[in-house]
Write a structure and sequence with these properties.
With 208 residues, the chain is α+β, with helices and mostly antiparallel strands. It is built from three helices and twelve strands; from the N terminus they run H-E-H-E-E-E-E-E-E-E-E-E-H-E-E. The strands form three sheets. Strands 1, 4, 9, 10 and 11 form a five-stranded mixed beta sheet that branches. It has a four-stranded antiparallel beta sheet with strand order 3-2-6-7, with no helix packed on it. The longest helix has 18 residues. The protein is globular and about 50 Å long.
């Protein structure tokens, strides 16, 4: 299962990574000392999904060979923000922040015609939870939701960033199902909750 996830993800991302720049270039925000989670609740507690919806479970982990102290200085990250964990948001969920390596539990609508959830937009990552370090992480995949499934697992999305322009070198999905299930049981306070693995598919895959 792990190997299948890795191969599928590489196929999904290879085209997107070729043209998608990592950092946004919004110069207006470049010198603002802005903490994206300041005064905000990170995210809601996971609840049972509503009708026609599903809870998607996974993680985002980012590694880089670049010096983050250098990044902080060049992006003018204020000293107060340097103590923050790096955080990310998923598409259409930009008011819900999760820390790097933290299990996310996000509710999405299921397409009635295809029984799929599509991720056409980027996840957004913030080093030190600082707006000026905004980094786009391409997704570009879809998942098919099994009948009656309420919670589905897509894996840990590992992004490797390299170079002084913080280019995306690779994206690999790793299966950490047991850890995700334990987190879901704790989050829902339900030891009998079922978490269903689902394969990641290319957006162009016509086999719905």
């Amino acid at each position: 299962m792990k190997n299948n996830l890795q191969l599928m993800l590489i196929g999904c991302f290879v085209f997107i990574c070729a043209w998608n720049p990592a950092f946004s270039l919004d110069r207006e925000d470049l010198y603002k000392k802005e903490n994206v989670i300041s005064g905000k609740k990170m995210h809601d507690v996971c609840k049972k999904p509503g009708k026609g919806n599903v809870i998607i479970v996974g993680k985002v982990v980012l590694t880089t060979d670049e010096n983050l102290d250098f990044l902080a200085k060049t992006r003018d990250v204020c000293e107060e923000n340097l103590k923050n964990a790096s955080v990310f948001t998923m598409p259409y969920q930009n008011d819900r922040f999760y820390a790097d390596g933290e299990c996310f539990f996000l509710e999405y609508d299921i397409d009635n015609d295809t029984d799929c959830v599509e991720f056409r937009q980027n996840a957004v990552y913030y080093f030190f939870a600082d707006k000026k370090t905004e980094l786009y992480l391409p997704l570009g995949f879809k998942i098919k939701i099994p009948e009656k499934a309420e919670y589905v697992y897509i894996g840990t999305l590992n992004y490797k960033i390299t170079g002084d322009n913080f280019s995306i070198a690779s994206v690999i999905a790793v299966d950490e199902y047991d850890d995700a299930l334990a987190s879901l049981k704790k989050e829902t306070e339900n030891n009998n909750v079922e978490l269903v693995r689902v394969p990641i598919m290319s957006l162009n895959d016509g086999n719905n």
